[in-house]
Write a structure and sequence with these properties.
3 copies of one chain form a homotrimer.
Chain A (H helix, E strand, L loop, with lengths): L3 E6 L7 H12 L4 E6 L7 H11 L8 E5 L10 E6 L3 E5 L13 E6 L15 H14 L23 E2 L4 E8 L5 E6 H4 L7 E3 L2 E3 L14 E5 L4 E6 L4 H5 L6 E3 L1
Parallel strand pairs in A: 1-2, 1-3, 3-5
Antiparallel strand pairs in A: 4-5, 4-6, 7-8, 8-9, 8-14, 9-13, 10-11, 10-14, 12-13
Chain lengths: 256, 256, 256
């Protein structure tokens, strides 16, 4: 049984916390393949972690174990969970971080991680990544059954996105994520827009009068609005950064 | 056939785009060894990507597959290519990113990537890293022959470096790269200098009157000029950053 | 013999120096498992590298080879060493970078790396990571005996931490490390404090009147003082950054 374990955290690498997780995993299963998805999620930003997983995790082969640790609630009462989906295993805090990813995959079972036998040393109050999530992932990769880590759990915390305001004439949403290339992701989904033919999208002082399908449909340096790969309305700039051009920030309003 | 695939991109890691490439590769060949060279190439900076590859890629064992995605022209008419060299396979956009690396290795064959059979899903207009380069690398690692990915291609886009100005009395070049330690790399090569015995190098208000061979030849905190590992004239500072000391930027003039 | 080699450096990834180390290692032993601990140690900061290793390296399985390259003295007379401990092998410059890690493990033997046979090419005066430490790690992973790399060495450079000032009434220490979450690590150890019952900790304009055991013992947004995992007195902020709140820097005084 030679499994893949992926890691998505907000640890950075310079303090050795990400290295600690790798050490614990390899200490239990030295043959598992560890794949870094990211250790650069902005600190304690669950939504950014959810986007990162949404863009990457579903592409891994069946049986992959995804560990995600963006965990502002560590030490509080938030549960530690293992989600078995139709294709993968997801391990992390129950705080919505898998919320977007689960739009692409189906939950089969949720286990609350409680069995101390499969934890690492005495559990520190601040570092469940090392003490709970890493060893559970490693034992799972060795063939331990999900049920052995704890009782089945009902319910799963939802990822809470800011709500849009919708009236007959318009939709008001906001920017909820900005990617590495400066593309602006809003909280307005394709479904929210519905099958409208004509629309305009306004952000700050700019108004776009149509929805584009590809960057190639506008000229270099021009703004465009499009439905991104995560099914949200996005704003981009051909061969440049919409974020820099608009001096945009998370929370900026988008009016449609 | 257990191959190594290296990755060099400007994606950063936080959006999951680098993770997506890894997922696609492992989805096709779960046994391949993926090695991160960098995901921190400055966005759309082909020359910086070329330096990174030049410093690292040739050191990998024969048969290694290097994937490089710094791709400002994605969606335009730039070709997607696979270069078979005497020792390695290079996969990426045809935009010169392999230009410096190819000074150390010899091109045997260039294939234009056209065979949809070895692509991933429907090709998105913006993410050829995931949809073309990653799956081609993965199928190649499984033993698919280069010819099966498309027709042979003649020609290869050159890496265009800024030109030096050369007269009898002097050479005027510029800084084209600044490394992590603040060393300044110019576009003046050892060949440009020729077998001169006496020379002086000026940058900003500073003039150096000789070419050093090692950092140990100057005192701590002193500037030096030397021929770097990429065969360009460089400026460094012993146990410090020439970049900070000179407040240097890419494009600054160097007069010799 | 399938070994793990970990890497901890201050190279960043964008120049390809970290990639060069991986290439050299895999060129010698293509089957070894390379694990990145960090390439983001602040440039030439030996103490930060020591903390990173302290938090992560001891967790890896027996027989792991840890390579650490934060090497401001490269090219000077500092030795290049291989330390065999009871559980691991440590390879890097003899500058104290393994100083904290060695509190958790016991030195069995120190070898000075001198045997050119196991080096890479001609040794560059500036890049021992690629030319000495990487190939030695790779040959070691193939089963070459420690003694074959050079003579046994007596002594090991200590990690020099700033000293505390201690009087009957108080201890004056300073902040020596700030982690990714903004926790402030001081140079005051649990031993320095001794078995005191009552104490107060002052930093800048703030005074804390007790030592906490966990973050949960204070309210959100409140400062706390505690003994961290590295056995130093630390200052943190529940669900936030003590560093930002206090505008703290390395070198700030802590009075107890």
């Amino acid at each position: 049984l030679k499994r893949i374990i992926t890691l998505t955290t907000d640890f950075g690498t310079q303090d050795g916390y990400a290295g600690a997780i790798k050490g614990v995993i390899l200490g239990i299963n030295p043959k598992v393949k560890i794949v870094d998805i990211s250790h650069q999620i902005p600190a304690q930003n669950i939504l950014a972690g959810a986007f990162c997983l949404y863009n990457s995790a579903s592409l891994f082969p069946n049986g992959t174990i995804h560990v995600a640790v963006v965990d502002p609630g560590v030490g509080s009462k938030r549960k530690a969970i293992l989600i078995q989906t139709e294709r993968h295993y997801l391990i992390g805090p129950d705080n919505g971080i898998f919320g977007l990813l689960l739009r692409k995959d189906k939950v089969k079972k949720v286990i609350e991680l409680r069995n101390l036998k499969h934890f690492f040393g005495k559990i520190s109050p601040t570092f469940h990544g090392r003490d709970i999530f890493a060893p559970v992932a490693a034992y799972l990769s060795l063939g331990v059954k999900p049920e052995e880590f704890g009782p089945e759990s009902s319910g799963l915390r939802k990822l809470t996105l800011p709500r849009i305001k919708k009236s007959k004439a318009k939709i008001i949403g906001q920017i909820i994520h900005i990617d590495n290339f400066g593309n602006l992701v809003s909280n307005v989904t394709a479904q929210d827009l519905g099958p409208v033919k004509k629309m305009s999208v306004s952000i700050k002082a700019h108004t776009l009068t149509k929805l584009s399908r590809t960057f190639a449909q506008v000229k270099r340096g021009e703004l465009l609005a499009y439905i991104g790969s995560a099914d949200f309305l996005e704003l981009g700039l051909r061969e440049g950064s919409a974020c820099l051009k608009l001096k945009a920030r998370i929370g900026d309003k988008v009016e449609i």
